[in-house]
Amino acid sequence: MRGFPTLHSLYGMAIRPNRLPLRMELLYIRVGSLHFLELQMKDFKDKVAVVTGAASGIGRGMAETFVAAGMKVVLSDIEQRPLEETTRLLLAAGADVHAVLTDVSKSDQVNNLAKQTLSKYGAVHVLCNNAGIGGLSGDGNGTSWTSSLDDWHWILGVNLMGVVHGIRSFLPIMIEQDTEAHIVNTASLAGLIAAGTLYGTSKFAVVGLSENVYLELQRGGFKPKVSVLCPSFVDTNIMNSNRNRPAEFAIETSAHAEPVAAAMREWVTEQCKRGLSPRAVGEQVLAAIRDERFYILTHPEFNPIIELRMKDILSGANPTLRPPPSVAARDG
Ligand SMILES: NC(=O)c1ccc[n+]([C@@H]2O[C@H](COP(=O)([O-])OP(=O)(O)OC[C@H]3O[C@@H](n4cnc5c(N)ncnc54)[C@H](O)[C@@H]3O)[C@@H](O)[C@H]2O)c1
Fold first, then answer.
1. How far is the CA of 149 from the centre of ligand 1 (A)?
2. Domain housing 23
């Protein structure tokens, strides 16, 4: 049909609708909305999800939520024992799950995760790039210049490159598959406001990466969707991340050299204990996939701090200095 726009070309034009003649614009809305309804992931039964960092905390909460929604789940983690234990418990409860030991900082291992997923289930509909580390000594008040390069390399390798590897290994498969698909990248509230130099740098990058991938997919008219998860405190093992510190990044910045850093660490540990349950976060992630919501902000009580940062940027003010928690607590 010469001169008649294909669905793909209509999607392409969606980013510049002012160039469409009125008649075609209406057609686009009608065809586009029908197509949109068809593609939205509403029914999770038998869909395939892959979760990295699934043996603990938020990843495990997502895996449990997906299983409860009837999905098949590939559980991946760097820690073998907890991965086996999580898999055993879910299998015993009747879930269809499969474990793949994976270090997300290694691209060949994430490629292997994708390969294993396809050979086990033949498709992938949801990928949660969730594995991450925090609670390093360089977080909180460890400064950018005193933290060891090993701290920097480790945290960026897992928290940022782990997400990059997930995107590079899985998105081509999802695009080729041409079905509804969704990638959820776990960032943090610390990816939206300054809250810990090393960790925050990795999480700001994940937010920026996710926004760009979302737009790349929109521009190309591809079906996969993207969300970025930005939680505040969740009751997990994050403050014990050093359990996974690889020998190649052995030089740790001393956590307790500065009293402020030690106080900050203690305070964050306590806040995590009082934080949301991982399962509650998993439920919010499932809802966001269903609603095709990009930003997943699990702790609305922190929105005023995000707003303050945005206002500082737009008003030309400098970043607002917030007192460290110990001082803030003393001052009431
Ligand atoms: N807990 C919080 O308060 C909080 C807040 C915001 C964001 N997050 C983010 O949530 C994600 C999950 O962390 P969590 O809080 O559940 O902590 P967690 O330590 O309980 O779980 C993290 C999981 O990732 C795994 N992991 C670590 N390094 C890995 C690697 N190289 N390859 C594969 N797996 C690896 C760990 O073994 C663990 O099972 C992280 O990205 C973290 O930054 C956590």
1. 21
2. 1-39
